[in-house]
Amino acid sequence: EDELSRSSHSNPGKSLVNGIKTNPASNSPKSSLPVPMGPPVYVDLAYIPNHCSGKNTDPEFFKRVRASYYVVSGNDAANGEPSRAVLDSLLEGKSQWGENLQVTLIPTHDTEVTREWYQQTHEKQQELNIMVLASSSTVVMQDESFPACKIEF
Measured between alpha carbons, how far is 143 from 4 in angstroms, rounded to an integer? Predict the structure, then answer.
């Protein structure tokens, strides 16, 4: 904290990211700075970033963020959402956990990509203890209705 305070006061344009001094103006999502390895993070629920787009999520995400439930919200085939590569990354990342924890994948939309991935990788999903939750529940609110599922912890 002392180092962070000193660097902030002496260099107002610089900050620490993962213990490395950076210039916030030059930071970008595809930064060339190496991401330090650390222990995985365990969470109950994780939302797969950017509507399950391949732009921001790779096997490393699933190696490091270990969730009981992953939400896949992509519904834009023109933009590659959800991305088959991201769904495959879940399989690759989970295969390296070294423990067989139950994982539930929750797609918020019924898409062709998700259906094909489910059918083509079903055996691998079973081997890795991954369940895809399909819900036929619908929430109706005033003039709007949408698919939904209930998750209890």
Answer: 51
What's the rounded Cα separation, in Å, for the pair 148 and 144? 13
Peptide bond into 36 cis (omega under 30): no
For 83-138, the pLDDT digits (tens) are 899 999 999 999 999 888 999 999 888 889 999 999 999 999 999 999 998 766 77
Q: In angstroms, rounded to a whole number, what is the distance separating the alpha carbons of residues 101 and 130?
A: 9
DSSP 38: -
Q: Residue 87's Cα: distance from chain center in Å?
A: 10
Q: What is the 3-state secondary structure (H, E, C) of 43-107?
A: EEEEECHHHHCCCCCCHHHHHHEEEEEEEECCCEHHHCECCHHHHHHHHHHHCCCCCCCCEEEEE
CB crowding 3-30: b at 16 or more within 10 Å, else e: eeeeeeeeeeeeeeeeeeeeeeeeeeee
Model-level pTM greater than 0.85? no
Phi, psi of 141 (to 5 degrees): -130, 115
